[in-house]
Undecaprenol kinase (Marinifilum flexuosum), 132 residues
Amino acid sequence: MNKKSKFSIKTLLNSFKHALRGVKIAVKEEDNAKIHLGIGIIMYVLSAVLKLKKMEIVAVLFSIGFVVVAELFNSAIENLCDFVQPNHHKQIKKIKDISAAAVLISAITAFIIGVLIYTDYLMNIASRFLTP
Ligand SMILES: Nc1ncnc2c1ncn2[C@@H]1O[C@H](COP(=O)(O)OP(=O)(O)OP(=O)(O)O)[C@@H](O)[C@H]1O
């Protein structure tokens, strides 16, 4: 566990493999991860369809990544909590609630960024259809 491993391409590839397994587990087991990933994909497709500016796409990608990362950490913390304390415990409640709060804050932030970016584009499209 504590031994220092030398850098090699094989170790690097193994780390990627472990990380990808983690993504697969989260998507398979966590409903919220599926929902957030779905919303992320929709936001990204919408960015391409609406032809957003480069910095707007950067903001959208950052928002998606922010929520997905918060979701992954939350899942890891939930799993750790369930492993160390399968029974109801007020300290576990506190830890899980704080962890869930991180996801909530990330999702609200991404939502506000989405509204700020997409509103102008969607209003433009709507006005084209509504003006005679
Ligand atoms: N062992 C526990 N002890 C005390 N409270 C708990 C415990 N497990 C869950 N809770 C409470 O229930 C809430 C939901 O926890 P849970 O682990 O079911 O996550 P979830 O919101 O259902 O997420 P997910 O659907 O991703 O698993 C927690 O935020 C916490 O308030």
Notes: The CA atoms of residues 62 and 110 lie 9 Å apart. The two ends are 70 Å apart (CA to CA). Residues 31-130 form a domain with the Helix Hairpins fold (CATH 1.10.287.3610).
